[in-house]
C-alpha cells in the first residue's frame, strides 16, 4: 500500500456566483521515501491539492488517505513550508521553530534541544535570537524548513518554496533541501513539492506529476531516473529531453 | 437602465419616504411649540455642516497638496497642524466664541461663524492628513513615469495627484462629516458667562428639549431622527461615491440590516479598509515622525502666538503680567494635580472597557460572519449617533437612578466608552482582516487552536493596530471629557471634579479666557507627552514585527 493515496479528488470554488472547477478527478499514490513534484501552469490547482493533502482545505469529492486513514484536518505527521515563508514576525527564529512543538506539548527542555539541532542543520545558529525582519529571504525560508522538520513529520509539503527567492539563493537552497532529504538521520523522507518551474522539478524529483490547465487533471506521471547528485547531470541530454517532454505536455 | 441602478434609486426613494413619514409623524404627534420648525432646523444644520465641509475640503486639499509638493512648507505646517490637532476642540470653544462675538457685537453672524469655526477645526484634520497620506502612498513608479513624460506643475496635480487621492478625500469626508455631527450639539447651544447662545438647528432643538422643555422623549426622538439623517446621507452620498471609486457597478446603498445584510457587510468592509488605509494609519504615522528641535520650537511658537493674539483681542488689549497672574491663580488652580488624576482615571477606566469590548467585538466580527452581521450595522449606527447629543438624555435617566453626581460620573464613563470604542473596533477588524492568508494557514497546519491561536497569532498581529486605535481614541476621549464632567443646565449646575469641569466652569461659566488657555495648555501637554512617551514608544516597538501585507 502506498504511503499516501489521493483518490477521486474534485474541488471547485465559487467566484462571482459562478462555480469554477480547479481540480477534476485526481488519483495517484505516493510511495515511501519518494521526492514527488507537482508541476503545471498557474491556476491548475496544484497548490490547492497540496493544501488538501495538508488538511487545510476540504475537497468537494474524494479523499486523501494517509496510512490508509482519510485526512480531515492538519496532522502532526504532515507539515508544510510556504511560499512567503509564513514566519511569525513577532517571534525570534528560535521561538518560531519552537512554537509548533509547544502546541504539540513537547516539554520545554526537549523542544529547545530539537529546535537548536534543526537550526544548526540549516546553518542559522548565529541568528537564533533575531527576528524575521532582520533576515534575508533565503534565511527566512531556512527557518521555515527548520520549523517544519522540527516536528519530525513523515511528509513535508512545499508550496513553491523557492519562487520568492533570487536565483542564486534558490539554487543553493535547492541543494540544501536535497541534502536534508537524503540525510538518513532525518525521519522525514517524503517530500511533496509544488512548482511551476519544470527545470526545478526535473532537478529535484524522483517522480513528477504533470497537471493540465484549469480544471487541473493529471496529464503525465513521469519517473525521473537521472542519477543523483543531479548537479553533475544538469547539462546532459537526458535532463533536457525530460524538460522538453514535460513542456510539450503542458503547452499542448 | 441597469438593474443595480434601479435598485439604488428605488432604495433612495424608499429612504426619502421613510424620512418624510418620520418627519410628519413627529410634527403631528409631538406637542411642542417649536416642532413645526423641524424641517427648517434640519435645513440650517445641514447647511452649516455642508458649508463647513466645503471649507474644510478646500483647506485640507490645498494645504495637503502644498505640504506634499514643498519640503519647506511641510517642515513648518505638518508639525504645527499636528499640535493643533492634539488640542481638544471643545476646550478652546469659549475663547473662539467670545472672539467672534466681539467682532460682530449683537449679531447672530458672530455666533454662526464661531460654530462654523468649531466644526471646521473638528472636520479639517481628517481631510488634511488623509490627503497627505494618500499623496505619500502614490507608487514611486507612477511619479517616475510622470517625470519621464515631463508632466509637471498643475498638470501633475490634475492628472496624477487628484485622481490618486479621491478615495482618501471621500473617506476623509465621511469621517469629517461624522465628526461634524458629533460637535454640532456643542456648537449650536452654548452657555457662556451665564448667557445662553443658541442657533436654529437640530442640535440646539435637542438641547432645548432637555434643558428648556424638560422633555426627554422629544430629545430621544430628535436623536433618532438625527441618526437616521446621518445614516441616510452617509449611504446615499459618501458610501456610494466610495463605491464608485473602488468598483465599477452601481450598488444599492440604503440597506440597513433589514434590507440586505450581505451587501451592507460588504460595503462596511470596504469602508473599513479605506478608513483604515487613509486615516487610521496615516495620522499616527505623522505623529510618529521625529521632528527636529527647530521644527518643534517653530510650530509651538506659532500655536502659542495664535492663542496670544486671541487672548489679547478678547481682553481688549489689556494684557499684562498682573492680569495673567490674577486670572490663573484662583483658589481652584491648586487642585490641578487632583483634577488631573481624576480625569485621567476616568479616561483610563473608559479606555480599558472599550479596549476589551473592541477586541472582543472586532475579533468576532472579523472572524465569524454571524457576528459581523450584528456588529457591522452596530458600527454604522454607533458612528452616526452624535454622542454629545446623547449626553443630556443619558444624564437625565442616570441621575434619576443614581442621583446627580454619581449619575454624572456614570454618564461621563458611558459617553467616553461610546466615543472611544469605534476607533479601536475599526482598527481591530481591519487588522484581523489583513492577517495574510499564509499566516492563517501556518496556524492551521501547526495546529494552533483556541487560546493558542489568540495568544500567538491574533493578539500579536493586531497589536500595532490596537496602539494606533488607542492613540486616536484617547484623542477623541479628551474632547468628550471636557463636555462630560460638567452639566451647566438643569436646576443648578452640576460637576464632578476634573480637568474638564474645571475648564468648562472657568471658560464657559466665568469667561476666564486666560485660565482657560492655561488649562488647555496643561491638557495639550499631557496629550502630547502621552503620545510621545506611551503610544510612540509602543508603536516603534511593535512596528518592526508588523506583517507586510
Describe this structure in words.
The complex is a heterodimer of chains A (252) and B (549). With 252 residues, chain A is of the alpha/beta class. Helices cover 34% and strands 25% of the residues of chain A. A six-stranded mixed sheet of chain A has the order 6-7-8-3-9-10, sandwiched between helices. In chain A, strand 7, helix 5 and strand 8 form a beta-alpha-beta unit. In chain A, helix 6 packs across helix 7. Chain A is globular, with a radius of gyration of 18 Å. The two termini of chain B are 39 Å apart. Chain B is globular and about 65 Å long. The relative contact order of chain B is 0.11. Chain B is mainly alpha-helical and 549 residues long. In chain B, strand 1 and strand 2 form a beta hairpin. In chain B, the strands form two sheets. In chain B, strands 1-2 form a two-stranded antiparallel sheet. A two-stranded antiparallel sheet of chain B has the order 3-4. The chains are: A alpha/beta (252), B mainly alpha (549). At the A-B interface, helix 2 of A face helix 18 and helix 19 of B.
Amino acid at each position: 500500500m502506498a504511503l499516501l493515496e489521493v483518490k477521486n479528488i474534485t474541488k471547485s470554488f465559487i467566484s462571482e456566483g459562478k462555480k469554477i472547477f480547479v481540480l477534476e478527478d485526481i488519483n495517484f499514490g505516493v510511495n515511501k521515501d519518494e521526492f514527488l513534484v507537482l508541476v503545471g501552469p498557474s491556476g491548475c490547482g496544484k497548490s490547492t491539492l497540496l493544501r488538501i493533502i495538508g488538511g487545510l482545505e476540504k475537497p468537494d469529492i474524494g479523499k486523501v488517505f494517509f496510512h490508509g486513514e482519510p485526512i480531515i484536518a492538519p496532522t502532526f505527521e504532515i507539515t508544510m513550508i510556504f511560499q512567503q515563508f509564513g514566519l511569525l514576525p513577532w517571534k525570534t527564529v528560535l521561538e518560531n521553530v519552537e512554537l509548533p512543538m509547544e502546541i504539540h506539548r513537547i516539554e520545554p527542555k526537549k523542544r529547545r534541544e530539537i529546535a537548536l539541532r534543526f537550526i544548526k542543520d540549516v546553518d542559522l545558529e548565529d541568528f537564533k535570537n533575531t527576528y524575521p525582519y532582520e533576515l534575508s529571504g533565503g534565511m527566512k525560508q531556512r527557518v521555515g524548513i527548520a520549523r517544519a522538520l522540527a516536528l519530525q513529520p513523515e511528509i513535508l509539503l512545499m508550496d513553491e518554496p523557492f519562487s520568492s527567492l533570487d536565483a542564486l539563493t534558490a539554487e543553493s537552497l535547492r541543494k540544501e533541501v536535497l541534502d536534508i532529504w537524503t540525510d538518513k538521520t532525518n525521519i522525514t523522507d517524503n517530500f511533496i513539492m509544488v512548482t511551476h518551474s519544470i527545470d526545478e522539478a526535473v532537478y529535484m524529483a524522483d517522480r513528477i506529476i504533470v497537471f493540465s490547465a484549469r480544471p487541473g487533471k493529471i496529464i503525465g506521471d513521469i519517473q525521473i531516473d537521472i542519477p543523483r547528485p543531479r548537479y553533475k547531470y544538469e547539462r546532459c541530454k537526458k535532463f533536457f529531453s525530460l524538460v522538453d517532454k514535460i513542456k510539450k505536455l503542458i503547452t499542448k | 437602465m441597469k438593474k443595480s441602478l434601479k435598485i439604488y434609486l428605488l432604495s433612495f426613494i424608499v429612504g426619502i419616504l421613510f424620512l418624510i413619514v418620520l418627519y410628519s409623524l413627529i410634527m403631528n404627534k409631538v406637542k411642542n411649540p417649536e416642532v413645526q420648525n423641524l424641517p427648517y432646523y434640519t435645513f440650517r444644520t445641514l447647511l452649516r455642516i455642508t458649508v463647513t465641509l466645503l471649507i474644510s475640503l478646500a483647506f485640507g486639499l490645498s494645504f495637503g497638496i502644498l505640504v506634499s509638493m514643498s519640503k519647506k512648507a511641510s517642515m513648518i505646517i505638518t508639525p504645527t497642524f499636528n499640535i493643533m490637532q492634539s488640542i481638544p476642540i471643545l476646550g478652546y470653544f469659549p475663547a473662539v466664541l467670545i472672539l467672534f462675538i466681539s467682532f460682530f457685537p449683537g449679531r447672530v453672524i458672530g455666533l454662526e461663524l464661531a460654530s462654523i469655526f468649531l466644526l471646521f477645526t473638528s472636520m479639517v484634520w481628517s481631510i488634511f492628513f488623509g490627503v497627505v497620506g494618500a499623496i505619500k502612498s502614490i507608487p514611486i513608479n507612477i511619479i517616475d513615469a510622470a517625470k519621464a513624460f515631463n508632466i509637471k506643475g498643475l498638470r501633475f496635480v490634475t492628472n496624477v495627484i487628484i485622481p490618486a487621492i479621491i478615495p482618501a478625500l471621500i473617506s476623509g469626508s465621511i469621517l469629517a462629516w461624522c465628526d461634524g455631527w458629533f460637535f454640532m450639539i456643542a456648537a449650536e447651544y452654548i452657555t457662556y458667562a451665564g448667557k445662553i447662545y443658541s442657533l436654529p438647528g437640530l442640535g440646539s432643538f435637542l438641547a432645548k428639549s432637555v434643558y428648556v422643555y424638560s422633555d426627554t422623549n422629544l430629545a430621544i426622538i430628535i436623536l433618532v431622527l438625527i441618526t437616521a439623517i446621518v445614516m441616510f446621507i452617509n449611504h446615499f452620498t459618501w458610501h456610494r461615491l466610495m463605491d464608485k471609486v473602488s468598483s465599477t457597478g452601481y450598488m444599492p446603498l440604503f440597506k440597513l440590516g433589514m434590507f440586505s445584510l450581505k451587501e451592507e457587510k460588504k460595503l462596511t468592509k470596504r469602508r473599513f479598509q479605506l478608513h483604515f488605509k487613509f486615516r487610521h494609519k496615516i495620522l499616527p504615522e505623522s505623529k510618529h515622525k521625529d521632528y527636529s528641535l527647530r521644527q518643534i520650537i517653530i510650530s509651538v511658537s506659532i500655536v502659542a502666538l495664535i492663542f496670544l493674539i486671541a487672548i489679547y483681542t478678547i481682553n481688549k488689549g489689556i494684557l499684562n503680567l498682573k492680569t495673567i497672574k490674577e486670572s490663573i491663580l484662583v483658589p481652584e488652580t491648586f487642585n490641578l494635580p487632583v483634577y488631573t488624576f481624576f480625569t485621567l482615571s476616568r479616561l483610563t477606566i473608559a479606555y480599558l472597557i472599550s479596549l476589551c469590548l473592541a477586541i472582543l467585538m472586532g475579533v468576532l466580527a472579523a472572524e465569524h460572519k454571524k457576528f459581523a452581521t450584528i456588529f457591522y450595522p452596530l458600527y454604522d449606527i454607533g458612528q452616526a449617533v452624535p454622542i454629545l447629543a446623547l449626553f443630556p438624555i443619558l444624564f437625565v435617566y442616570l441621575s434619576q437612578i443614581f442621583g446627580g453626581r454619581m449619575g454624572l460620573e456614570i454618564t461621563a464613563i458611558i459617553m467616553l466608552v461610546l466615543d472611544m470604542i469605534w476607533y479601536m473596533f475599526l482598527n481591530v477588524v481591519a487588522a484581523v482582516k489583513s492577517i495574510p492568508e499564509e499566516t492563517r494557514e501556518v496556524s492551521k497546519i501547526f495546529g494552533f487552536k483556541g487560546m493558542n491561536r489568540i495568544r500567538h497569532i491574533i493578539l500579536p498581529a493586531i497589536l500595532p493596530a490596537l496602539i494606533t486605535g488607542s492613540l486616536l481614541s484617547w484623542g477623541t476621549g479628551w474632547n468628550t471629557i471636557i463636555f462630560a464632567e460638567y452639566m451647566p443646565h438643569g436646576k443648578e449646575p452640576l460637576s464632578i471634579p476634573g480637568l474638564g469641569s474645571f475648564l468648562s466652569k472657568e471658560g464657559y461659566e466665568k469667561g476666564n479666557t486666560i485660565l482657560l488657555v492655561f488649562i488647555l495648555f496643561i491638557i495639550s501637554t499631557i496629550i502630547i507627552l502621552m503620545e510621545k512617551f506611551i503610544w510612540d514608544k509602543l508603536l516603534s516597538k511593535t512596528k518592526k514585527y508588523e506583517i507586510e501585507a
